[in-house]
Amino acid sequence: MHSSSDVALATNELAAARVELTRLHDRERELLVELRSVRSAARVQQDKINDLFKQQRLPAPITRLPLTVLSDIIHRVILDTHPEPDAHRCTKRELASVSRLWRDAIFTFPNLWTTVAIDPLWSISLVMSHVERSGECPLDIIIRNWTDYSSSSLLKDVLGVVVTCGYRWRSLVIQTISGTPAVQVVKSIWRMRFISLESVKIFGVQTFGDLPLLTSRYTPSLKHLMIRSEGRIDQLPATSSLQTGIFQWFGPGSGSLLSCLPSYQQLRKLILCGRSDGWPRPQSIHLPALVSLTLKVADPQLALAAMVVPNLNYLEFPPPCYPDGWVHMFEGFPNMFTNIRHLRLIDDSNVPRFTPFLESAEAGAMAVCAACPGVRHLELHADDIPTFFHPNTPTERWSHLECLTLEGLRVGMIPSGLIQWINGRTSKEERLLQVTLSEFHVFGNIPDGSWLTTLRKSIRGRCLFKLKDVPLKSTLEVNTWSQGDTLDSHGSCDSLGIFSKDCFEG
Asked: Which of 72, 267, 347, 483 has the lowest CB atom count within 10 Å?
């Protein structure tokens, strides 16, 4: 039995618990009232914010950009749209119709009006508006697409508008001009003086013969010249300020072309593409400022022999398509090109070549290395790996090499000779070489990635390895979780183009 004191204590505790419960219930009701009040106030505040947005109509972020920044963005969009004359004729109009702000940004930015196309699709009023709105900014002139079926009178009128501001011409492109009337109109500017003209490109046109326009008398500021002729190029204009020359021809040999080069004493970059015969005598062409030379001619050895280029830094020409080709090209130039740092020996035309015997390959590699002993960056086709890198290649060869780029490696191929040379080079504490593989060739089915893993393991830690556009066949595994059960789905994926921007060690 419970004593009276125990009953009294239990009664008091029960009464105290009931009082506390009553207090909590009252507090709950107060909080619910407060919550309803807060929710109501929040709804009122949200409605107020919505009304303010509707009333003020705050502008989109792009409309808050400074006008000059918006104009620069639009300018970049137009420059990235090709062909450029159509972008200035159509894209600019479309962008101007977006809003009044965009229209103001386009019409008040002179640099958006500096490209003027003398084209059958451009009206004379469109040309005049570009000339006027460009202010006094330099002009980039494009003359193109005039044929026998075009109106030569329109060409004459439009050209007349543009030559009135010839002192502002910065660049000139002449493209696809044919038919006697059109050619005669274009030739009318040959003896006009353009004091600010720095760049001229002429391609896809009939041969115009003598080009006084491109001489120092008429274009004293000319620095960059490109001529792409369907026939021969027997003469080059005499201009002392030229820094870049790109000459490509498709007709029979232009043997006298190189004899015109000595006047280009400031020439820094030269590209010659085409068949040729009768090169000048050895060491008769002095180009002291030349730093970049590309020779895509039938026999580059004769062209190299004719030149004296003490400051040449970059040399490019296609590999030979006959046995002993490397020896023929380089054996007469020991230590001739000691300043060359970048050597590219790759042909983009995919002409089949003979695979030389080991003795010929070794002699060719020695000749190339002896002529260009200071190369830092070497670019080769993968077919030439056995020539330059085989098990017997001395590790001290290419001792200054920092970057090696190989194009056209067959997917699944492991270049063992190159790997042995890299391993031997690393053991002598040479600087880690950066090896880049790109433009892979795929024959038959695409193998899985195991060959790439094998290649990577074979040179782990011995070079910096870069891959570009590697074709891989990938297998995907999909795991789906549902109520504790696991469903596995397996399937094949098409080849993936992968570009690795980051280097990783072997």
From this structure: 483
